[in-house]
Amino acid sequence: MFQISDISYSTKKDFYDDVISYAKGLMYEEKDKIANLANISALLYNIMEKINWVGFYLYKNSELVLGPFQGKPACIRIKMGTGVCGTAASSRKIQVVSNVHEYKGHIPCDSETNSEIVIPIILNDTLLGVLDIDSPMIDRFDCEDSEYLSKLIKLITDHCDWNE
């Protein structure tokens, strides 16, 4: 049985080091991308503070399609270049939005969301999808979150079988 311990962290680095360690344990000997993305979204949802949604959108047929997630029901399909997720996917750049209400073209799936971070998932120059995390707080995410979540995405891309 996998158990997340109640530990308080003095730094984001310490927090994300544990997230990476938990993720490695969850994915141990498992290559299925859906199973792994489901567990990683559950891990993040249960261990990260001040978030209200976390999940993956997978790139299929020139759009993003909802994948494994935790939180309220979400938008199912997102066109490339639209909203924060579509912008992250089309630009292939991390999007950190301190206030989604000031973001032109934001797609409001949950009225409680105030900030958002989206990390593109890219392997061998191929877009696979994005990791999307929402928060009810303004300014919840910063460059440290970007840095460490990128490391988590690298772990996921290297570990999963994306050809299935």
Question: How is the topology of this model organized?
Answer:
Elements: H1 12-27, H2 33-47, E1 53-60, E2 63-71, E3 77-79, H3 83-91, E4 95-97, E5 115-123, E6 126-135, H4 143-159
Antiparallel strand pairs: 1-2, 1-6, 2-3, 4-5, 5-6
Could you walk me through the main structural features you see in this protein, from its secondary elements to its overall organization?
It is a single chain. The chain has 164 residues and is α+β, with helices and mostly antiparallel strands. The chain has a single domain (12-159), classed as 2-Layer Sandwich (Beta-Lactamase), CATH 3.30.450. Helix content is 35%, strand content 26%. It has four helices and six strands. It has a six-stranded antiparallel beta sheet with strand order 3-2-1-6-5-4, sandwiched between helices. Helix 1 runs parallel beside helix 4 (143-159). It is globular, with a radius of gyration of 15 Å. The two termini are 27 Å apart.
In brief:
The protein is an alpha+beta fold and about 160 residues long. The protein contains four helices and six strands, in the order ααβββαβββα.
